[in-house]
Amino acid sequence: MLSEHVRTRSPARIELAELINLKPAGESISLTTLRAHAASSGGHLSPFKGRGVEFDESRPYEEGDDLRTIDWRVTARTGKPYTKVFREERDRPVIVWLDLRRPMLFATRGAFKAVRASQAAALIAWSTVANGDRLGGLVFGENDHLELRPRLGRGAALRLFQTLTQSERWDPEATPAEASGATALLRLTRVARPGSLVFMLSDFRNLGAMADRQIRQIARHTDVFLLHFYDVIERELPPPGRYRVTSAGRTFAIETDSSGARERYRAQFADRRERLAELARAPSIHLLECATTEDPRAVLAKRFKSR
After folding, report:
1. Digit-coded pLDDT (tens) for 109-139
2. Total count of domains within the chain
3. 59, 107, 221, 267: which has the highest count of C-beta atoms within 10 A?
């Protein structure tokens, strides 16, 4: 049974008031520390990377400076070696990367994947605000994406909620764009600052051939949580028969009599899960899964300590 915190007025879309009402539930979760028993898929614990560092200035290179911090632009311009000086950021950016493409507007039970992802985004946002960290986001659909620069305070959460509840983002008639997921992932590689905590909320379908490499690239300097949302029918087809399915405004029939088709369908989902599990074997990448019938708060609480 879902908790009162995540009950939704409609299984097919989310409302601003619902996300605001998740404030107490979000504040009860601390994203700053993993539960001690929560090992990653690779069987090892991974403490978060330290808070990010921000470029401050360049100064002449001195003996003993880390060669990796050499400022090559200034060095080339002046003809003398210069090194970059960084200062520690006072707060940690938390980035929510939220997928609202058409495949996320689907469920046979519970609520749409996009609804569960939006609830999870709200919980993460309120936890971030309660911890005094900066909250940013990248929300994308079929044909657009909106980037929200990390900011402090309640206003950052409300700005994210207003973005993801815009009616056009829940339009099932939106024309699919094959490159939308790949574009949004490429943008994330450019906006995720070192030391950030990145939450990627998606069903991880059709993100492009470079997706795995880009996620690993992001995780070199950040901590990444992959929140995989799925419906039970995506995991395995229902018993043999003919079914009418409605998805993203379209109604179509599927036949599940063929054993070969059932096996291929099952293998396709298993391959996607294994690919995500393989990514999560890296110390700085973590995988969580949430079915459309599950409570996102319970999923997050399994991995993070309560306040």
Report:
1. 899 999 999 999 999 999 999 999 999 999 9
2. 2
3. 107
Enter the tokens of residue 176. Answer: 């699919």
Q: Tokens 């943008």 sit at which residue?
A: 187
Model-level pTM?
0.78
Judge if 196 and 235 occupy the same domain: yes
User: What range does the domain containing 65 cover?
Assistant: 56-88
For the chain, give percent helix, strand, coil, nearest 5: 35, 25, 35
Region of 46 (left: φ > 0; alpha: ψ -120 to 50; beta: rest) is beta
CA-wise closest residue to 16 among 125, 201, 158, 202: 158
- List the structure tokens of 33: 């520390």
Return all residues near 258 (Cβ < 8 A) that are at least 6 apart. Answer: none
Separation CA 132–CA 195 (nearest Å): 15
Which ranges of 192-239 would DSSP assign to H, the alpha helix?
A: 211-219, 232-235
Give the C-alpha separation, 126 to 133, whole Å.
Answer: 10
- Indicate if 158 and 29 belong to the same structural domain: yes
- CA dihedral (119, 120, 125, 128) positive or negative: positive
pLDDT, tens digit (0-9, with 9 covering 90-100), for 33-68: 555 434 444 433 445 555 445 666 788 987 767 788
Pairing of strands 145-151, 197-202: unpaired
Q: What pLDDT, on the 0 to 100 scale, is given for residue 45?
A: 41
Radius of gyration of the chain (CA): 21
